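Example complex used in Figure S2.
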Amino acid sequence: MTPFGGWDMPLSYPSGTLDEHRACRENAVVFDVSHLGTLRVQGAEAFEGLQRILTNDLGRIQPGRAQYTHLLDKHDASVLDDIIVWWVDDQRFDVMPNASNTSRVAEALGSSVSAVDVTNERAILAVQGPKARQLLGTVFGDAAVVGRFRVAHVQLGNAPCVVAGTGYTGEDGVEIAVPVSHAEAVWDAIVGAGITPAGLGARDTLRLEAGLPLHGQELGPGITPLQAGLGWVVRWDKGAFQGSEALRAERDRGVARKLHGISVEGRRPPRSGQAVLVDGQPGGVVTSGNFSPMLGHGIALAFIDTDVSDQPIEPGQRVQIEARGGLLDGIVVKPPFVTGP
Amino acid sequence: MNIPQELRYSADHEWVRVEGNRITLGITDYAQDALGDVVFVDVPESGTAVAVGDSFSEVESTKSVSDIYSPVSGTIVEVNEALGDAPEQLNQDPYGSGWLVVIELANPDELEQLIDADAYLALIEE
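Predicted assembly (467 residues):
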């Protein structure tokens, strides 16, 4: 067990991170991700209120859908949190921040709408992998058919649940919000269906292979969505939102650095904080790095300064990472490192 | 937790098997379990001289990096090259195929600083 954002979470179950990782790529795993926050925003003002705060455009989806979005700092457009919004019913949105950011997001939303923190009322179980739906379907058929980025009320036994076709592994699957009193029974049924329990260690190696950002590493203070290559999360055409002026200014002057994937030779894992050399000159920093269980070598996400070279940094660019014990030779690649379904 | 009686141990969670003037060294079952899945082992070159407390190898798991410190002084005379492609041996068989190095001792008296299996068990149960 390890402390994480105020929660105690398993780094791995007895089978270990690598086995759990492979199980998710080849079969199916279940994570207890109850540490994610749930802020419930309801009422006639909910839609407009969220539109004024968050970067993505809820007008592009509808009730019964989920959307990835950002909350920005109003002064410098830093990503205060990256969030999934479950649009559950016409006037009900479940906003899902990262564990340690829940109170910060509640505070920001509070300026526009009324947000109730219901995190402690439910557990969230993420079932992920190419066989997630097939195996989940043997015990909870209605949960297994909730489509990608769809959200639905589903009754699992006597438990009223909300299920979304979302996740953080690069694989297909669903996330199930279940009342705390029923969570253990639903977990046991899922594991009983032959789905492997997986911990925080595998969650991190899986999301890294999938090129998905982690708040606190690829996103956070001083990092905007444009630097992180997540411009698609920002819908300029919907009107003003928190931080939009600051972000527009950055867009107009051009970003000073951009997030890239780096694939390194050999097994030694790059680590966050290590310098990236371009043409032998320091010009970037690793934000996340590890061994890729599927590729068998090291991979990293890293910010590289845009002015480090006369040419824009493109996939294929050779770089080096200053690791413990020497330089790692690497090549810039466009994430994901491993492609899912 | 597997702690073979016939081996000697360091407080840094290494085991040592003494064979004449040489020792074989690896990390304990407790150490491999605490590290989690090992994905990379930086093995030193044969012929490297080491002193007590020198870091001569790095073991990286999916979650952390650990230095391996020599409990003795001497010369590394054999290294487990197989760990380069199969670092998981450290997890699967820490006292067997997961061995790290063989060191020729410069000063066999240093072995007296190592502890026996019972003392090591007491140490990790602290």
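Chain B has three helices and nine strands. The interface with chain A takes residues 36-37, 39-40, 42, 58, 60, 62-63, 65, 84, 87-88, 91 of chain B (CB under 8 Å).
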